[in-house]
Amino acid sequence: MKRARLFLPVFMACGLLFALSLPRSKPVSLVKVLKDRGPVWAVLERLQIDVRQELETCFLALADREDLRALRKNRVAFSIIDREAGGIEDYFIVPLRAPGTLDELQARGRAAAVEPRTAVFWTTAGLPMEVLPSELPRKPLSSSSVLPFLRAPVDIKRAAPVSAAFQDPVVEVLAAQVSEAGLRSLVQSLQDFQTRYASTTQCEAAGEFIYNTFSSLGLDDVWFEPFVFSSGYQSRNVIAEKTGETYADDVLIICGHYDSISPSATRQTLAPGADDNASGTAAVIEAARVLAAYPLDFTVRFIAFSAEEWGLWGSRDYAGKARTAGESIIGVINLDMIAYADAMPEDLEVIVNGRSEWLAERLIAAADLYADLTARKTVDPSFVYSDHSPFWDQGYRALLAIEDNPLRNPTYHQTTDTIDKLNFEFFTASARASLALLAELAQPVREGYPRTPIGLTAEPVVYRSLFNAVKSARLSWAAQAGTSGYNVYRTNMSHLDYVKLNDAPVTSTTFTDDHLRIDLPYYYVVTGVGTTGLESNFSREAEISPDNLMMTTQTQVLNFLQMLRAR
């Protein structure tokens, strides 16, 4: 008995020492870090700050006490939003659309304005999804750091294109095949499910309808990707693929969400969602129908996401898995509400972040050339309330096409969002413009033309002395049968305004581009030229970024210093 009495306090003391020896979790705060065009980008990378969201004027990040001290030491302006940050899924970014929105949010939970038009909302009483007003869009903070994909802006003044916009006759034929009757039929079929609110059997039935429709088109593959969302609910993204003949592993995506929502009293039984977002889903299916029969250089995926209205769950799941798998996604065209016109002619709004700006420029041109439609670009990293945003979080280029910004559709998230409110002239033009952009980027394979070159690589080379620097890019690619030479093109803005560098076709499979600026990005493509002068489609783009050039320069300097020491 004495031994037992002695053993108990010793055991408790040992347990206490063991507990004290375990590493303690550090208190973490949610902070707002102000942007600038100077050192803050480099400081965040050097300190490895856990940035979870890029907005127009700031970053939202998780930071412990050591991080906060380091930010202060480096004179980075920040403010603390929540000193005791809980699970990251509990924080939602929401728009401040009216003067009283912030007061309403603070009455429902906790909210802080981080920009004039943007707030962060969280609550300890229930699920934020259920507490937020149903008419308010929302986006959870990213579940992983977006720091690896942040890039400081590069000041490039876009000159006028060297040649006028070229209307591709093949793309013209494809765009003209978009059917107003087909779009109408698809929207009606989706509306007929009464509700497509994620978590309902009707939403899952709508997914089956989309799957069966894709399967009837003769595409290369169709599949479901299931995911779990919110408090254990399940749903599925529906994906169809047209595999590229030249670059099967390089993917273009056109997408829209097929779930719908209405006020809490009706969403389980009635949420017709004709504009939001049967319109975008129908345009995606129609693009698949048109392109199914045409061989393309690049792979195209047609995706209908689910649980967007719950907080972008389907697209977040897909984009995160794509990044983990290392997928090469060239660009994403997200269609969300493209069929309501408050007045005609209606403009199509195109929203991008800085890295995706080229996509907006290309859609604007395609809308004008192939759909007689005016599109307008807005660069706004704070517009994160649709399925393009998770792709931004993972470093992929993506755009949102939407009818208005801010929205003017009075039936938004209401039981009155029905097909009779849609403008099919504007809807058809929007669908044609998006299909035309997709076709231009995927590049139809043309009979009788040289095949598209493959294997293009661009290697930066920097030679630096104490007083001068000589910079160049060494390009190489694989030989392509049926060609008599190659043309080499360069630009400073991805997929825009290519300039041919050679006067006569290059007869080898290498090319050196000299006299490059060290502070600018460079993008290259090559084409094959046939014996009759016909020119192939563009190759995959190869990039030399300012970071690569700077790293090469630093290596050259270190090697030079080491050489001096060796002497």
Characterization of this structure:
With 567 residues, this protein is an alpha+beta fold. It has helices at residues 2-21, 40-47, 65-73, 101-108, 128-131, 169-176, 180-191, 201-215, 274-291, 313-324, 357-371, 389-393, 424-442, 546-566, and strands spanning 28-34, 50-54, 58-64, 78-82, 92-95, 110-115, 118-122, 139-140, 221-229, 233-242, 247-257, 298-305, 328-335, 348-352, 375-379, 398-402, 457-464, 469-476, 485-491, 499-500, 510-514, 522-529, 542-544. Helix 9 links the parallel strand 11 (247-257) and strand 12. The chain folds into three domains: 28-149, no CATH class; 171-442, Aminopeptidase (3-Layer(aba) Sandwich); 457-566, Immunoglobulin-like. The protein contains 14 helices and 23 strands. The strands form five sheets. Strands 9-10-12-11-13-16-14-15 form an eight-stranded mixed sheet, sandwiched between helices. A four-stranded antiparallel sheet has the order 2-3-1-4, with helices on one face. It has a four-stranded antiparallel sheet with strand order 6-7-5-8, covered by helices on one side. Helix 7 crosses helix 9 (274-291).
Concise account of the structure shown:
This protein is of the alpha+beta class and 567 residues long. The chain has helices at residues 2-21, 40-47, 65-73, 101-108, 128-131, 169-176, 180-191, 201-215, 274-291, 313-324, 357-371, 389-393, 424-442, 546-566, and strands at residues 28-34, 50-54, 58-64, 78-82, 92-95, 110-115, 118-122, 139-140, 221-229, 233-242, 247-257, 298-305, 328-335, 348-352, 375-379, 398-402, 457-464, 469-476, 485-491, 499-500, 510-514, 522-529, 542-544. It is globular and about 70 Å long.
